[in-house]
Design brief:
- By secondary structure, this protein is an alpha/beta fold.
- It folds into two domains: 152 residues, Alpha-Beta Complex (Aspartate Aminotransferase, domain 1); 241 residues, Aspartate Aminotransferase, domain 2.
- It has 14 helices and 13 strands.
- The strands form three sheets. The chain has an eight-stranded mixed sheet, sandwiched between helices.
- The protein starts with 14 loop residues before the first helix and ends with a helix.
- The relative contact order is 0.17.
- The structure holds pyridoxal-5'-phosphate (PLP).
- The site of pyridoxal-5'-phosphate has 13 residues, from helix 5.
Amino acid sequence: MRKIVADRIGLISYAIRELVPLAREMERKGEKVIYLNIGDPLKYDFDTPHHIKEALYEGTLKGYNYYSVSEGLDELREAIAYKEKKFNGVDITAEEVIVTQGVSEAIAFIAATLLNSGDEILVPDPTYPLYQTYIRVFHGKPVFYGTIEENGWQPDIDDIRSKISEKTKAIVIINPNNPTGSVYDEKTVKAILDVAAEHDIIVISDEIYDRIVFDATFKSTAALSKDVPIIGLNGFSKVYLMTGWRLGYMYVYDPTQKYRDILVSALVKMARCRLSASTPVQYAGIAAIKGPQDHVKDMVAKIRRRRDYLYKRISEIDGMSSILPKGAFYIFPNISRIEKDDKLFALKLLKEEKVLVVHGSGFGPSGAGHLRIVLLPPIELLEEAMSRIEHFIKKMYGNRVSKIN
Ligand SMILES: Cc1ncc(COP(=O)(O)O)c(C=O)c1O
């Protein structure tokens, strides 16, 4: 038999969905599994605002059914530039915005656009897994920089500095962070920008959770950059509750003007390969930005209550502890005092108690000994899930817990 599949397929892993086939199989056998693994509010009691749904229908009736230009509808790019200014203080023009089918696609385009074989991109450890994957698929090397758990998972600036080499093309920031829930201090973002400026490298800033922040002030990287080119990533999945619609964007903000045109035209070339993002969905994206924003406040209040509940429950369990998440919708508890093998823990928890969480090591080496749990389910479901987790820890790790105490 010929080797028909390319080696790069072996480089793809996506921890968040790894245990899903097993959970599905259990469900087929009649078990009731509680899913705490996927960052999709629409899987719980959140829904896309009605006026956005109406706009999608209206878009189809008005004839927005053709392939749009690859960089996206002009009206949407204008709306995105307006949104970035209004909410994040970022000064960009519509020409600097490229509309994508979600931030996921933007990550692929950026990796394809920046990387020659062996080039490096610094990514936070732990990280959102697609960064590692796409950097590898496009023959680059993801180089992890540390983030410090005791310091609320803020990036370790000295470590970033020490990891920069001749081959470094960019530094990735995910803020607010998935999986840790950290929101970076302004001082930290500025320090990262200083390192980037010293070495003439760009910063890629994933801000998809920009308006889902609880007890912190979020500052957009581009709003703080004086001399570093930024590729900003953002989208409609989370804040506008449009996960399944697949709409996102990236922008190039370059105060030096050195790389702006080169980057925009290279990224647009990549975008042309897939023709366009869905045109009626883009039309609805305009309504999302221009229409009422009330749902954001309600959503954040709801997630905050769930965060408070989960944090309290986790803090009460012997052998589990967590930093309080300040943004996004994840909590990243540490279980290393009772179990270093987080993957085994997640597997056993699923098999024994029918609760699906993501093992922390799937997000990078320093995620080992951690779990990622979504803050999205209603309190009653979280209550049930936490009771099962508590029961599991007592049953499987009772001895270790009593030794800790
Ligand atoms: C940090 C981060 N970036 C990007 C994405 C992908 O989002 P999209 O739905 O826009 O592809 C996610 C989804 O969970 C995410 O958490």
